[in-house]
Amino acid sequence: MTGLVPSPARPYLVVWCLSYLRIVCLTLNMILCLAFSLHLSYFLTRELRMSENTNTWTNCYA
């Protein structure tokens, strides 16, 4: 049963694990960045809606 996992396949397995971890980290980073930008845009639109009476935000974005 030792012939099932030859020794040259071990570095390939390490490289595959590292590339898989890199893909997972990039995906998590993209998800976090998207969630943060959505939260920020929601916060800005909420501030826009709350300050429509004073017209401070609308003057900045006009």
Distance between the termini: 73 Å
Question: What structural category do the secondary elements indicate?
Answer: mainly alpha
Number of domains: 1
**Average pLDDT number:** 76
Flag low-confidence runs: none
- Coarse shape: rod-shaped
Task: Bin the strand percentage.
Answer: under 5%
Describe the structure.
Keywords: Membrane, Transmembrane, Transmembrane helix. The protein is mainly alpha-helical. It has one domain (about 10-55). Helix content is about 75%, strand content about 0%. It is built from two helices and no strands. The chain has helices at about 10-50, 55-60. The radius of gyration is 25 Å and the shape is rod-shaped. The chain starts with 8 loop residues before the first helix and ends with a helix. The mean pLDDT is about 75.
What key phrases describe this protein's structure?
62 residues; mainly alpha; 0% strand; membrane; transmembrane; transmembrane helix
Would you kindly provide a brief summary of this structure?
Keywords: Membrane, Transmembrane, Transmembrane helix. The chain is mostly helical and about 60 residues long.
Topology of helices and strands:
Blueprint: H1 9-50, H2 56-61
